[in-house]
Amino acid sequence: MSHALGNHILVEFMGCDPHIMNDVASIERDMVGAAQKAGATVINSTFHHFSPYGVSGVVVIQESHLAIHTWPEYGYAAVDLFTCGEMDAWISFDFLKECFGAKNYSALEMKRGSVNLLTRNDFDLSSMREKAADRTNPGMYTRNVWFTDKDEDQALSLRFTGDVFYDVQSPFQRVRIIESYKYGKMLALDDMVMTTIKDEFHYHEMISHPAMFTHGNAKNILVIGGGDGGTVREILRHEGVEKVTMVEIDGEVINACKEHLPEIAAAFDDPKLELIVDDGIAFIANAAPQSYDLIIVDGSDPVGPAEGLFSVSFYTNCYNALKEGGILVA
């Protein structure tokens, strides 16, 4: 007979897959799976992704909890497996070791809450159990999985369902479509929020319509970037437009949005659109002088493939490609 209230295993997983260590949805799924594999009853899960990397989370189980923090840059995870009753936490340990691809590990097992050192308090269990029964549903549990986009001045955290609809590492960046509770499906590039279903219209309408109405007669338009398709969708609402050329460097962004964000990518099949998957910086450098009535640079932050969109030479080339009276928006 055990003389302790709980069993605690402190685990260090080393040599883990760094991509898994930075994937909050994957880690949440694995930690819940580890609890279920050992026969635990999952009550809820709360997991948070830190920017640029790292995940913390806890799975609360009826038998206690499983907790984790990861350091993807070291391929390392610190895990707590705390259980009460007959649950065998070593089953969870073996499951996680396999899921994380750990090449090495250490584990320290200890008993917690020695009954020889404790005095038991009496409670009226008849009323407590009736209330607790209303909160316990072994078939369901609450998920709290958080995605964070952070820079040196600000941070944005969105709670999402934990479901990842698209996750591809392109030659340029990691392209993901996930679903948030507040803003619906969301496009993230290298852990930066690019657009969401619920609020994308603010950006796409403002980057396109003021320039279109100001010009008044824009017929030939160039969009550099804008792989989600929202900007060309808004431009093509103007009947006087004859041609839109869109140059996007990353075809995976286009594929992801066509498949999972059709509301935004609605104009990709428009016959007035010429869609080119290529480097917009090189494209504009070779563009004929005075070719476009309007050029819109729909890029992201000055990192990765978009870094060159913030150079003097790039904007000089844009200026040269504009017709007399043309407009540049960036």
Ordered list of secondary-structure elements with their pairings:
Layout lengths: L3 E11 L3 H4 L2 H14 L4 E8 L5 E7 L2 E8 L4 E8 L5 H12 L3 E11 L10 H11 L6 E9 L4 E15 L4 E7 L3 E6 L2 E5 L3 H16 L4 E6 L4 H6 L7 E6 L2 H10 L12 E5 L2 H6 L6 E7 L13 H10 E8 L1
Parallel strand pairs: 2-7, 12-13, 12-15, 13-14, 15-16
Antiparallel strand pairs: 1-5, 1-6, 2-3, 3-4, 4-5, 7-8, 8-9, 9-10, 10-11
Descriptive overview:
- It is a single chain.
- The protein has helices spanning 18-21, 24-37, 89-100, 125-135, 200-215, 230-235, 251-260, 280-285, 312-321, and strands at residues 4-14, 42-49, 55-61, 64-71, 76-83, 104-114, 142-150, 155-169, 174-180, 184-189, 192-196, 220-225, 243-248, 273-277, 292-298, 322-329.
- The chain folds into 2 domains: 4-144, 4-Layer Sandwich (S-adenosylmethionine decarboxylase); 200-329, Rossmann fold, CATH 3.40.50.
- The protein is elongated.
- Strand 12 (220-225), helix 6 (230-235) and strand 13 form a beta-alpha-beta unit.
- The strands form 2 sheets. An 11-stranded mixed sheet has the order 6-1-5-4-3-2-7-8-9-10-11.
- It starts with a strand and ends with a strand.
- The chain is α/β, with parallel strands linked by helices and 330 residues long.
- Helix 2 packs antiparallel against helix 3 (89-100).
- The longest helix is centred in the middle third of the chain and has 16 residues, at 200-215.
- The protein contains 9 helices and 16 strands.
Question: Keywords for this structure?
Answer:
330 residues, S-adenosylmethionine decarboxylase, Rossmann fold, 5-stranded parallel beta sheet, 9 helices, elongated
